[in-house]
Design a protein that fits this description.
By secondary structure, this protein is α+β, with helices and mostly antiparallel strands. It has two domains: about 5-130, no CATH class; about 130-168, no CATH class. About 20% of the residues lie in helices and about 45% in strands. It has three helices and nine strands, in the order αββββαβββαββ. A seven-stranded mixed beta sheet has the order 2-1-7-6-5-4-3, with helices on one face. It has a two-stranded antiparallel sheet with strand order 8-9. β6 and β7 form a beta hairpin. The longest helix is centred in the middle third of the chain and has 14 residues, at about 75-90. The model has no long low-confidence stretch (mean pLDDT about 85).
Length: about 170
């Protein structure tokens, strides 16, 4: 889900409780939005291809003193936090939004939105941890070719001539 779509969801449901589900029937208790990150990644994949990506990552944190509370923040309160962030450091609305969370034995992970359920009183954000992937193999599959064909040596033109690269 893009940051823009998520912010619109909050704006359209201001009085609803904002609930995050990180595993089936496992919900983050009362939390604080402690940080909103505009993240810029530059990477090189195993096939020698350059990539550039932007993300918005929202960090969710549980305060030990609030752990027994039952009322989570409303969409309106969350939107106020995003507006403060946007006023200081404008968010890139076309980027995918992620949520960073970990607590006690649950290792901190960055979650993506799988789906949103809207009830009369809640916005339930169902999250999942994206799996790692081989970008050259994904690109090959998207182009309708055999993914394994990307894993052999591939000639690639460079400024100094040609070099052989591959992935895996």
């Amino acid at each position: 889900m893009t940051t823009k779509t998520f912010l619109e969801l909050l704006a359209n449901n201001p009085q609803k409780e904002l609930v995050f589900e990180y595993e089936a029937n496992q919900f983050i208790p009362v939390y604080h939005i402690t940080e909103v990150k505009n993240v810029h990644f530059e990477s090189i994949d195993c096939g020698g291809n350059a990539h550039e990506e932007y993300q918005t990552i929202t960090q969710l944190w549980i305060s030990p003193k609030d752990f027994m509370e039952t009322k989570r923040m409303t969409a309106e309160k969350a939107l106020k936090i995003y507006n403060i962030v946007d006023g200081v450091k404008p968010m890139k609305r076309g980027t995918e939004i992620f949520f960073e969370y970990g607590y006690k034995d649950l290792r901190t992970s960055v979650y993506s939105i799988e789906e949103v359920e809207e009830t009369e009183t809640q916005l339930i954000i169902r999250m999942f941890v994206p799996k790692t992937a081989c970008k050259p193999a994904l690109k090959v599959v998207e182009n309708g070719k055999n993914a394994l064909s990307c894993c052999g040596p591939v000639p690639q033109a460079t400024e100094k001539g040609e070099k052989t690269v591959g992935c895996c």
